[in-house]
Design a protein that fits this description.
The complex is a heterodimer of chains A (312) and B (243).
Chain A: H1 5-29, H2 37-59, H3 79-104, H4 109-131, H5 144-166, H6 172-198, H7 205-208, E1 217-221, H8 229-234, H9 240-267, H10 270-297
Helix pairs in contact in A: 1-2, 1-4, 1-5, 1-10, 2-3, 3-4, 4-5, 5-6, 5-10, 6-9, 9-10
Chain B: E1 13-18, H1 27-38, E2 46-47, E3 55-56, E4 61-67, E5 74-80, H2 89-92, E6 99-101, E7 108-110, H3 120-124, E8 131-132, E9 139-140, H4 146-149, H5 162-166, E10 172-176, H6 183-191, E11 207-209, H7 215-218, H8 232-241
Parallel strand pairs in B: 1-11
Antiparallel strand pairs in B: 1-10, 2-3, 4-5, 6-7, 8-9
The chains are: A mainly alpha (312), B alpha+beta (243).
Bound molecules: iron/sulfur cluster (SF4) (2 copies).
Residues 93-96, 98-99, 110, 115-121, 139 of chain B line the site of one iron/sulfur cluster (SF4).
């Protein structure tokens, strides 16, 4: 599948934003963060900016964005619609939490809980959009949604560590949690990759042209020599050896390097800690960008079997 | 509303496509583009039609394949368009309500005034039957020519999809597959019509009739006799050409 920049930006940015929103709300609720205006704003501010930026990027994926409001109507059947509703609805408790925290120096418990739940629900919907697509076997597996949730949580924790360190708050708990969670998250991602690699193909070219039992089918005359939207969208290929290299880079930049930087940051203090936090965030961003690019680039759609792919 | 009609429509309008007789002439492809470019789902984009990289929207594509080895090998032309599935995931994933399945006859359509061009329905279709129109930014797909099949002003023989009317090999048949007594349903029963990629669970309405066994195989036993070695004109010719 074509890795559209709008979708890479949307899923990584809003994922990180919702992760940070949930982490910050819960840290506030647990009184790990003080109920002071500045402490609220330094975390909730960037979270809401990341969410809004992601949602804005998603607009560019629509060919007719002026009608985007219609996407809020079909939540009864469509995960995309549910995602849209949850994304916007989460702003209500998030803003209520930000207002209470920064204007009245108190952390409204209900708003904090609802903001965290809304954030989790939105990311869950994002995962389900992909996980329910039967024609794309690599996405259509039970671990797809957990991976989205796990990556959002990891991003939220690393961001929370960096922001707390930079603003003189105690980054101890988010830092330790990040150290605990990062290996689990990437372990899950590696498992997801393996399961996707091992899944036997469900559709062969022979079955796709209605003659499943007379041996393999070879394309001899393409249906069209000109391009088509469907081919652009689903015909994306990435060489296996490139993919293997990119997976290692994603693990390095998204997992090993932020883990080490957070660890060093926790062990040090002052300026070094701030630099470590910032570097961890930048590294994770790069790792997630690679991971998300691969998520699309490695995924094959069953339609490819009519265009030369032997089996999907 | 993108919920599927419940219960599933009893009337199931669709196509039966005969892979035995399809000769891959692309007449249905052109007829579809011609009719639908001006009809219900039109216009259908043609980008750079005379340029170096032409591209465009088509609702029907015919792929040429070869299956089997040696004497059992044969060419199969596979026309690909929407199969108007009963369990149409393309409909339920649509966030806007633009995609829908008609309760009265099961035809799957796009309300272009509502479509935001997100493309998700095309991802959800395993048959690759939907194309986002690059000019209008909305999703296009086979409509079974809704603007022909019900038009009382047309003579009865023309109230079929344009592809069916155009096929010179009579490889395309249109009718109600929900009615076991219909001509198309009987054809499917007779010829063992295939439910394409049934394992994916979409329950397509359209059926494909498998190619009949190759005639070359049946004729394998009685090859042409060798010409007699002596006598007559053939014998003389044989001696002349021999050695
Ligand atoms: S063939 Fe594709 S577009 Fe047509 S109804 Fe089935 S899933 Fe939908
Ligand atoms: S492209 Fe249009 S019809 Fe398809 S899912 Fe999106 S809004 Fe619905």
């Amino acid at each position: 599948m074509r890795p559209a920049p709008s979708l890479l930006l949307f899923t990584t940015l809003s994922g990180a934003g919702y992760g940070l929103l949930a982490v910050w709300a819960l840290l506030g609720l647990a009184a790990v963060l003080p109920a002071e205006p500045r402490a609220g704003l330094v975390g909730l501010g960037p979270a809401l900016v990341a969410i809004a930026a992601g949602l804005f990027a998603s607009r560019f994926h629509l060919a007719r964005p002026e009608r985007a409001w219609r996407a809020f109507t079909q939540w009864r059947t469509s995960w995309l619609s549910r995602e849209a509703v949850a994304a916007v609805a989460t702003f209500a408790p998030a803003l209520a939490l930000a207002a209470g925290w920064s204007l009245e120096s108190r952390i409204p418990a209900a708003a904090a809980l609802l903001a965290a739940a809304g954030a989790a629900l939105t990311v869950l919907c994002t995962g389900q959009i992909y996980a329910t697509l039967v024609p794309i076997p690599r996405w259509h597996q039970p671990l797809t949604t957990p991976v989205f949730l796990a990556l959002a949580l990891a991003s939220g924790l690393v961001l929370a560590f960096a922001l707390a360190a930079a603003s003189g708050l105690d980054p101890g708990l988010p830092g330790l949690l990040a150290l605990a969670v990062l290996p689990l998250v990437w372990g899950l991602k590696v498992l997801w990759w393996r399961l996707g690699d091992r899944a036997p193909p469900r559709v062969t070219a022979a079955a796709a042209i209605g003659v499943p039992d007379r041996g393999p089918a070879r394309p001899i005359e393409p249906a069209h020599t000109a391009g088509s939207w469907l081919l652009d969208e689903t015909g994306f290929r990435v060489a296996r050896r490139h993919a293997a290299k990119l997976r290692r880079l994603a693990l390095l930049f998204g997992g090993a390097s932020p883990w080490s930087l957070v660890a060093v940051g926790l062990a040090t203090g002052g300026g070094a800690r701030i630099v470590c936090g910032l570097a961890a965030v930048l590294s994770l961003a790069l790792g997630l960008a690679i991971e998300r690019w691969l998520f699309f680039a490695e995924a094959k759609h069953t339609a490819a079997v009519w265009y030369g792919e032997r089996a999907v | 509303m993108t919920a599927l009609p419940d219960p599933p429509p009893a009337r199931r309008l669709g196509l039966v496509i005969d892979l035995d007789t399809c000769v891959g002439c692309q007449a249905c492809v052109v007829a579809c583009k011609e009719w639908n470019g001006g009809g219900h789902p039109g216009p259908l984009a043609d980008l750079e039609p005379y340029g170096s990289r032409p591209a465009g929207t088509w609702l029907n594509r015919v792929h040429g394949f070869e299956v089997g080895e040696g004497a059992a090998g044969r060419t199969v032309y596979f026309p690909r368009s929407c199969l108007h599935c009963e369990n149409a995931l393309c409909v339920t994933v649509c966030p806007t309500g633009a995609s829908f399945k008609r309760a009265e006859d099961g035809i799957v359509l796009v309300d272009e005034a509502k479509c935001i061009g997100c493309g998700l329905c095309a991802w959800a279709c395993p048959y690759g039957a939907r194309e986002l129109d690059p000019a209008s930014g909305v999703m296009k797909k086979c409509t079974l020519c809704v603007d022909r099949i019900g038009d009382e002003r047309l003579p009865a023989e023309d109230r079929v999809p344009a592809c069916v009317a155009a096929c010179p090999a009579r490889a395309r048949h249109f009718g109600d597959l929900g009615d076991p007594e219909s001509a198309v349903a009987r054809l499917v029963a007779e010829r063992g019509g295939v439910e394409l990629l049934a394992e994916l669970g979409y329950r397509p309405t359209n059926r494909y009739l498998p190619p009949r066994p190759g005639r070359r195989l049946a004729a394998d036993g009685d090859r042409l006799e060798d010409a007699p070695a002596e006598g007559g004109f053939l014998g003389w010719l044989d001696r002349l050409l021999g050695d």
